[in-house]
Amino acid sequence: MDQDAGGSNSCTLERLYAWEKKLYDEVKASESIRKEYDRKCEQLRHQSAKDESTRVIDKTRSVVRDLHSRIIVAIYSFDTISKQIERVRDEELLPQLLELNQGLVKMWRAMLECHHAQFITISLAYHSRSSTRTIEADARREILAQLLEEFKCFGLSFDNWINSHTSYVESLNGWLQNCVLQPSDRSKNRRRPLSPRRVLAPPIFVLCRDWSSGIKALPADDLSRAIKVFVSELCRVMKQQEDKELQEKQNLSGELNNEETKSNNNTIEDTSEDDYADLCCIHESLTKVLSQMTKFSEASLKMSEDVKQKSQAAQAAYHNCKSVRTGRF
User: Fold this and answer.
1) Measured between alpha carbons, how far is 98 from 39 in angstroms, rounded to an integer?
2) pTM
3) Could you say which of 98, 268, 302, 308 has the lowest number of CB atoms within 10 Å?
4) Can you list the alpha helix ranges (DSSP code H) found in 254-328?
């Protein structure tokens, strides 16, 4: 979604909140009127039963009528505000959510292509032993440090994004569920969740329900774990490299003789072997990360496309049902 659309969505949510608050305030205010109405009705019944004077009964009856009129006005206000909320929900919020989902379809299609290419490239990459010796220790340390920083940032950003995305959609779905009187499960004395397709609810109910369910099924945890494993592997390799460099400096500070030189030559060969093994571990771990990124992109694309298709079907079914109910064909 572009910046203008995002701003529009924010404004729409703010308007919905304002209307919801107004409705809440109206309902709270009407509660005192209803309680007073009930109290006066009870008083009127007692007065009639006691056969009190006509003047007293008429006075109480007048108050009851006034309170009843105020309740009718309040109910009309509830209905007017509710219809306004429904209008904003169906005519403004729904198109914005459909636009957002369409943008996610395009984004995940591009991301899938990108991550798949990255996965193929890394999977086919060949690191020879000679290539490891061409990289100086300082350069290797800098490369690993930069890679570590980038993946730490990536892992944190991914977790924040998936949490924000999930929270946004689940909040919308939860709000919609609270907008309807849901049937109760008599056998267990509890409310059953609304099935928007079964009752032909407005399309936004279907959209948010499917979207919320789809997000929960995404392999986000698998990708997050793969990133953490890769970060841990980089930290291990960097720590091991630091320990080796410290050991080499200590060896060089002593006196050298032929035997020590020979021993150091063996140490260099062992170090080269270790460096190659570390590189293979990093390569294997990075391949798993890119594999999970590809799978996550593929699952996200499929989810967004499914949400789009099912939403379109729900819109068609809902409008057809409305046409039948209103006699429009």
Assistant:
1) 50
2) 0.80
3) 268
4) 258-326
